[in-house]
Amino acid sequence: MGAVLFCSNLDDPEEWRGPLTKLMPDLDLRVYPNFGKAEDIDFAMVWRPPEEGMDQFKNLKAIQSLGAGVNQLDMSKLPPRVAIARLVDEVLSKAMAEFCVLTALRYHRNIDVHERNSRTKKWEYIIPRPAEQRTVGVMGIGVLGGAAARLLKSVGFKVCGWSRGPKKLDGVECFHGPDGLYRMASKCSIMIGLLPLTPETQGIIGKKLFDAMPQGSYIVNVGRGGHLNEADLLPAIQSGKIAGATLDVFNAEPLPDNHPFWNRPQILITPHVASTGGADTAAQLVVENIRLARAGKTLVNQVDRSKGY
Ligand code: NDP
Ligand code: OXD
User: Catalytic: which of 106, 164, 224, 227?
Assistant: First the structure.
């Protein structure tokens, strides 16, 4: 039987070993870079592949991403025989939905303004509006965006969602396709980016989107840094078109000290913490995928490599 490689600069393999071996007692888990013979490896759990790539693993059948996103795997460098699966986990979905509601409510209830005012002893009464008068847009209504849209709805917001193909979500006004985004944007004063990063979605949060939104709107990007056209954000904030942005993901992480986004009162930076999965709950999926890969079957949550997500 083959061995499973664990390769991540972010995740602790020992947190996974217990839950995995409970479900698969004969699991041979090897942690990069101490994986022994490369030809033993037939399955890999990976956040970011090693610098030298995955070519040395000639018997690799499948990669289980340690994240919901897979862009960091650079699929173009992986042979077609290697199947890829995304991590889908209820803990991850719940945490992401919480983060989206938290950031939407922070803007909706003007907490960002009160935070700034409290630093300068400014007593400014801003009349709170009911959530029902606010429309929040979610770009990407898959597993995570769908969970976020449902929780936003339960708080009382009007919710719109955007996807690649047509979709129905209870109580959510759904849009799809390139034109659909800008039709949706005209209704939304808070926009949450929860897309996978692909050539089609690169730079999609930029001037064209900001221009389509109402004056004084808010942006929340929790997808990937590459979705934001960074050069477009500061002028949009300067002009007041965008009143605030919460950014959790960046092209370069950690965000470099000299990056112009630091120290902007209208930008809240969080260090890629919108959501994380739990090894305890996700181990079930990983073990199922190890078994499926070894049996030559399609994985659960297998990525469509032609779509890139
Ligand atoms: P899914 O694959 O379940 O959903 C993706 C959604 O995006 C789908 O609705 C899909 O449309 C839509 N989409 C993809 N391409 C396009 C396009 N070109 N135009 C319009 N819609 C598009 O992904 P998840 O919800 O599980 O995850 C989304 C992303 O969240 C991940 O890829 C990752 O980058 C990010 N993430 C961030 C985390 C953080 O902590 N900040 C944590 C976890 C994930 P359709 O339904 O038609 O296919
Ligand atoms: C993920 C992430 O993709 O944490 O899961 O960003």
Answer: 224
